[in-house]
Give the backbone structure.
Amino acid sequence: MADAAISDQMQLPPFGQVFEGEGLVCIEQLPVGFVRTFLHPDFFPTVWEAGDKATLTNRATALSEVSWSSAWEALESAQREALEVAPGTPALKVTRYWQIQQAETWQTVRIDQEWWRQHAVVLCGGATNQGSASAQKGK
């Protein structure tokens, strides 16, 4: 069953069914990331039958829009135990929302939550202003 926040985000009824999976990311046998994924059952109907052989590629996510947020937080018990760290250890939590457009509204079909140990995080960035580049090429 989905908790209240997941149910609300995915527009499910209270205590609605949701598919949930967890995984651990390791580098040289050291756990550095804990991942939890929630799937809307109406858009991933074969996940339950496929079990461990399930894939998350389907038409719904191929035509999606993804938004994300991140924040540093103290790890909760399940994530702390999986990452083998002490209580109160900070981690970067990244949450991604996969949405598809249906009629005139957006429907959340997948939510990914990730917790990363601080030594496993490298922030990088870049930007390209395509509008300015094409305007200058035309001059």
